[in-house]
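Quick start: what a row looks like.
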Amino acid sequence: MKVIDISGHGGPEVLHLAERSVPVVGAGELLIRVHASGVNRPDVLQRLGHYPVPAGASDILGLEVAGSIARGDIAELAAAGFKLGDRVCALVAGGGYAEYCVAPIAQCLPVPAGLSDIEAASLPETFFTVWSNMMERAQLQPGETVLIQGGSSGIGVTAIQLAKFVGARVFVTAGSDDKCAACVALGADAAINYKTQGFQEEVMRLTDGQGVDVILDMVAGSYVAKEVQCLKDDGRLAIISILGGVKSEFNAGLVLRRRLTITGSTLRPRSVAFKGAIAQACLKEVWPALASGQIKPVIYRTFKAAEVAKAHGLMESSQHVGKIVLTWSET
């Protein structure tokens, strides 16, 4: 099979097409004939050497795929509601940048009705992450207000739509007026250009000084101190990435007096059982909304697999709004 290999840690130019053997399917797994692979920020970090591969995972980049079931234990597939040839999308711990990818059956979901494989490949990483952190850890409730940092990212466009779907009021930050406009078009109630406005001041202005209930943060670093200031009593901050650095200084007294929760998680090293539970929650709560069009995949651009370096260059430029996807039909 064709795969995307890395000649060494570095820029996008280290990525290239290569040949490898089709992976072997183990117990509780299936083999997907990949039609599309999602491109995510962790892929860039792994290429740069900043994101170690979890034990037992493929060293091939790629955390989400969509395609058709090529192989698997018939009885186990049937127990999960699948059969050979079914179109599925999956969250994987690695191996997604390839024509064939092994995935735990528990981490596979049917392609929502009406969606293409390209659209389906954009779903697992962001929806699993947002559901796990914004809905389960931070427990966003109908009628509450959420601030989403990086609203135009793949995570951001997913979080905006999911938060609106559950009945929350949504504020976002983004790095340009055009990106802010795109976020509002997706349903955000207000968008803050963090390059020209202070998000802390804007959040307090928009909430008449009360602050927000939940913050979904992929920056960390110096943002945490400001986010603690932005939270209401009993507010929850969920950190899902550390693009701004691992060190934060904040007013711990506010955390005590206002009963704030600061939490966070990373999904890749979690167990199959944990990810499978998220998959079932998304299947029940989110997949019907995708099938009905109430929530829509946001695809910024697709690239043939052979153009993976261009895809990573675009990801690093942060010029995109939504998801970047590789296609395998003609490499």
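That is the whole record. The mean pLDDT is 96. The two ends are 11 Å apart (CA to CA).
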